[in-house]
Amino acid sequence: MEIFKADVVIVGGGGAGLRAAIAVAECDPKLKIALVSKVYPMRSHTVAAEGGAAGVKKPTDSFEYHFHDTVGGGDWLCEQDVVEYFVEQAPLELTQLEHWGCPWSRTEDGHVNVRAFGGMKIERTWFAADKSGFHILHTLFQTSIKYPSIKRFDEHFCVDILEEDGRCQGAVVIEMGTGEFTMIEAKSVIIATGGAGRVFRESTLGGIVTGDGMALAYRHGVALRDMEFVQYHPTCMPVTGLLFTEACRGEGGYLVNKDGYRYLQDYGLGPLQDKPKNKYMELGPRDRLSQAFFFEQQKGRTIEHPTLGSVVHLDLRHLGEAYLRERLPLIYEMAETFMGLDPAKDPIPVRPGVHYTMGGIKTDGKCAASLKGLYAIGECSSVGIHGANRLGSNSLTELLVFGKVAGVEAAKNAKSAAPGNSAALLKQAQAVEQRVMALKTKTGGSERISVIRKEMTQSMEDGCGIYRMEKTMQATCDKLAELRERFKNISIDDKSSVWNTDWLTAIELDYQLDVAQAMAHSAINRKESRGAHQRLDGYEQRDDVNFLKHSEAYYVAGAAPRIALGDVKITKSQPAARVYGAAGEKADQERKASHV
Amino acid sequence: MSKRRPYVRPMGGWWKKNPFFVEYMVHEGTALFVAAYAVTLLVGLVRLGQGEAAWNGWLEAMKSPLSIVFHLVLLVAIAYHAITWFKLFPLTMPPMVVNGKRLEPNVVVGGGWTAAVVVALGLLAVVWRIAQ
Amino acid sequence: MSESQKIIEIEVLRYNPESDKEPHREVYKVPFSDDMSVLQGAQYIKDNFDGSLTFRWSCRMAICGSCGMMINGIPKLSCETFLRDYYPNRISIEAMAHFPIEKDLVVDLSGFIEKLESIQPYIIPREARTLEQGEYIQSPAQFNEYIQFTSCINCTLCYAACPQFGLNPDFIGPAAMALLHRYNMDSRDGGAEQRMQLVTSEEGVFNCSAVGYCSEVCPKHVDPGNAVNINKINAAKDYFLRFLSPKGGSK
Predict the structure, then answer these.
(1) Which among A134, A334, A497 is the nearest to C18, CB-wise?
(2) For residue A112, which residues of chain C lie inside 8 Å, CB to CB?
(3) I need a surface site. Which of A10, A189, A424, C59 has the fewest CB within 10 A?
(4) What is the CATH number of domain B12-87?
């Protein structure tokens, strides 16, 4: 086995991982950084983010507003001290990215422009047309090339992290091109592997979004926090799940049902607005919009498409072709290419699809996990800013703000930590290699990867969808337990070494099953409705007495996870009714009045 | 140790695999006809320098059926070369911006043609004046 | 649906370096619906017929740049190419041309990545600025100078379209040169001189014979061929400036 000695190893080369790598390199150029990614970094799923990144920009805006939008949007399940830090750092990090070359869209006078986004009181979403994630990722990747201390392990697949003497001290990776193993020793390990939405059937996500890092940390005893909160994005392409950015609505798009009626006015988001108005109608938060779709469907007011199923229409026609081409070029092309329609002439059929995992590896406000030396950032982490529902455009900013924090912290730790026991680590790594190789070389299995995956994703959609009930959640928990058993009998067609994606897919599926279990068991345990977790079986209300708590899922080998509850940090925003539209405005005024 | 064994596909006959490449090769090939015509004219110039008899001989040769066929072939080949050459304008020229908007490729090509036609007509007019 | 299920034949150029001497073709009969992409066709084969079929993919929406392949001999992103457009004919898929095949549809991209790294693809500030000073100001005209060249998704279809790269794998090639040009044209950047050496080098722009197919196949309308050709002009200018200016052009 190859051995590589680094100071910091970062698993995941998306926005968060790259930002962290740059932060470490800037802290101390002598620190050796190993950046591991199972795809070339610019393929990471940050690339697909469309709408933009939130950070206070306008003189009429304030950190206070961004804070309240985020905490209220998260249904008060946010770590408020962390949110405070986040909103203050956001504009600095977005400006930093501008200095590195990110082509943010601009106003006529040459300053960075901002657009409206759901659940945000003031326009504060920095955007690069509708390819914000793409530009952020490529800017970070290209900037990272400037730093010689960043040694990239592109197309290397992480199969385990190493824990020795109570500290996380490295990772074991497979070079996908050869199938060979490398042990990367490091004093700090940062996990930045992104979300796990691919455990669901219809999602906006790329094939790589399989929760690898979450499962790795989880198996080492680190809690996965708030995993039941899975965001359905309200406007996705039916069947494929591909995303039509929230910016479609930020720029003025309407959502209408089969009668051409803007139904959101019936769900506490009205009254009707002609022009996009922040926190009204189509600019409500994602959880509310997806839930409204569910009820429209129940009422038989969705459009029943012969091949696409139930949909509503995203209507952009009134914005005109020229404006759409300028502000939403990717959306325009996607509608043309994938659906054969012209958004300037036809409404776009959409429905909610799985988009984001609010929960993840539990960390403190400095991105440190409970295992010393281990850090987590980005969608795989739960640093505490999203609570029960993430506001659109907070996640891209999160990558930058906390990517930097983790980089700085990991660098500090790497400089102060005692050297590890290389021999003991190697022994562990060899055991990992044996275990992972056994999955490939074993014979006699009869279960196909694709079949187990299909049953898992269907079951997650059935049990942990937009609305949940005890019975169906239990069925999902049972199904996952069954699939866990059946996974042991898996068969892998490909026995080769070079580029064996069959084998790697099986490892990913193994990760996915663990993460899915954490989600389903966290969900069934939360007997209330909050943010993206909504129940229809007697727990329709938010219950702050019993559940103003984080869920924490702990791995139990060979059994269902253990779910514990953890405290929520509240600094200046006491839980209140979560209201939007006119009611939201009234509540805002009352809050202001009570402060005076 | 590594079991990698990257396979490099041969490039032989690459230009026959795609109509776009065929057009490219024909375009490049027709440049030879442009050269051939230049040589023909050059020979005429040399003959002119050698005196009246030589010049008349060259003129006669130009009138032969073989020469006319040759010139027809040249005309077709050079026309093809010109058309495909103008087609490359948007690729090879820096983008042209008018009123803050980038010119469309067909406008660039059209502009090239217009300029060429104007220059050709101008030249013709000059020659005409001299011949008068 | 089941009785009217359409079946398309997909012919795949397969190559397993551990067992095959050279690539060979295999044909699969894939049931498909009209919304199925070529990528989904390949996934169907992997999921149902042969798990060893190997290809790169991720986003499914033509932005991650992973899934390029030759589809009936033309470089395309398989996620945005649809089986219905080929039916009832057989469709052939093959690894991107001009790159060494690692396995099946996966090619060796390490050379491309090295080229990308070699062009200094980052802002070399013309004028330093602190975060407290806020963003650089860029007029719409300055913005329009480079924005088109930022759209490259590194899918390398342009390399699969470039015979000169096929003949000389050292050629820096369209996408890398487009990225170089992107930074040169950015008003925030002052690194054009540093990058010129590479433009005029043995591997540089003069390998290009203006075939132009790179720009034709680019799924994001980056027009990398234009970037290469503009830099021929820039290189020529630089060459002559060396005679004119006492300092010479760039090094």
Answers:
(1) A497
(2) 135
(3) A424
(4) 1.20.1300.10
**For C33-89, where are the E strands, in sequence order?**
68-71, 74-77
Domain boundaries, chain B: 12-87, 97-132
Known catalytic membership, residue A286:
no
Give the other-Cβ count within 10 Å of A322's Cβ: 9
Q: Mean of the per-residue pLDDT values for chain C?
A: 95
Decide if A178 contacts B4 (C-beta within 8 A).
yes
User: Could you tell me which residues are beta bridge partners of residue A348?
Assistant: A314
Give B60-122 as a 3 state SS string: HHHHCHHHHHHHHHHHHHHHHHHHHHHHCHHHHCCCCEECCEECCHHHHHHHHHHHHHHHHHH
Which residue among B7, B9, B20 places its CB closest to the CB of C213? B20
CB neighbourhood size of B74 (10 A):
16
Q: Which helix (H) or strand (E) holds A468?
A: strand A467-468
* CATH number of residue A270's parent domain: 3.90.700.10
Measured between alpha carbons, how far is residue C197 from residues C71, C118, C238 in Å?
36, 11, 10
pLDDT-derived band at C1 (thresholds 50, 70, 90) equals very low
Q: Read off the pLDDT of residues C21-65 as tens digits, 9 standing for 90 and up.
A: 999 999 999 999 999 999 999 999 999 999 999 999 999 999 999
- Which of B2, B7, B101, B102 to mutate to test binding with chain A, by most A CBs within 10 Å of its CB? B2
Could you tell me if B8 lies within 8 Å of chain A, comparing CB atoms? no
CATH homologous superfamily of C110-244 equals: Alpha-helical ferredoxin (1.10.1060.10)
Residue range A482-534, pLDDT digits in tens: 999 999 999 999 999 999 999 999 999 999 999 999 999 999 999 999 999 99
Mean pLDDT of C61-83: 97
CB C76 within 8 A of CB C68: yes
A449: chain C residues, CB-CB within 8 Å: 47, 51
How far is the C-alpha of B56 from the C-alpha of B61, rounded, in Å? 9
Q: Please determine, for residue A257, whether its predicted confidence score (pLDDT) is greater than 80.
A: yes
* Bridge partners, A90 (sequence order): none
Cα–Cα nearest to A20, from A589, A550, A554, A410: A410
Residues 6+ apart with CB under 8 A from A93: A55, A397, A400, A401, A404
Known catalytic residue: A325? no
C6-107 sits in which CATH class? alpha beta
CA dist B33 and B82 (Å) reads 11
B2 at A interface, C-beta within 8 A: yes
Largest pairwise CA distance in chain A: 73
- Give the pTM: 0.96
Residue B124 backbone zone (phi > 0: left; psi -120 to 50: alpha; other: beta)? alpha
Q: Which two tokens stand for residue A506?
A: 């099986």
Number of domains present in the structure of chain A: 1
List A233, A351, A386, A530, catalytic entry: A233
Q: Which helix (H) or strand (E) covers residue A33, if one does?
A: strand A33-37
Predicted confidence (pLDDT) at residue A390 exceeds the cutoff of 50 = yes
